[in-house]
Amino acid sequence: MKEIIIIRHGESEWNKENRFTGWQDVELSDKGIEEAIDAGKLLLKTGYHFTLAYSSVLRRANETLRYVLKEIGQVDLETIYSWKLNERHYGALQGLNKDETRQRYGDAQVQKWRRDMYEKPPLLLTSDQRYPGHDEKYKDLTEAELPLGENLFDTMQRVNAFYEESIEPSLKSGEKILIVAHGNSLRALVAYLEHLDDAAVMKLEIPTGRPVVLEMDDELKLTKRYFLDEKGEK
Length: 234
Hints:
about 230 residues; alpha/beta; Rossmann fold; 6-stranded mixed beta sheet; 8 helices
């Protein structure tokens, strides 16, 4: 049996303010820091030890990972950072308050933007300061790779490709893997591994700061998914 532990970053400042975040690089809230520390304590209590970590290039995920690794005594753990594990890019919605956006566009439209597999948000212009092409972190990406806004399917495409090119080979070589990323990028990964249909993906929720265990057989087929705190001691 093989396992991956996945953790959605702790609550961010914009989660707290109920804003669309996407690729905007915001910090953890005080609650988010506590969630990250608690996740690390739970991993320590249950005896997990990792040989490799993955994260996005966004600070809220990176900060969560740092707090977790400090708690489990693995601050020097090898970590691979990739933009392909970033949160879904919410385009021109990024920074907007969700409740105010509902008042402007209606509940149904906002729900489609948030949950529909193929509904894209309003797209950015490349002149917008929120366009990732203006961020040094993405200087090596091609114009085609730089999103103006993504639907969930777009996010799944890049996450799935990264799993196949990096995470899957690491699993096959025996690495014990921790992934700290984002709600939608982790939903995309679970959907890929579980072969979920569109309706199931739309209902899938991954809360902040709770470690999730993905158990796999030797052929890397997912056999079980559960929150670590629902299992207790290993």
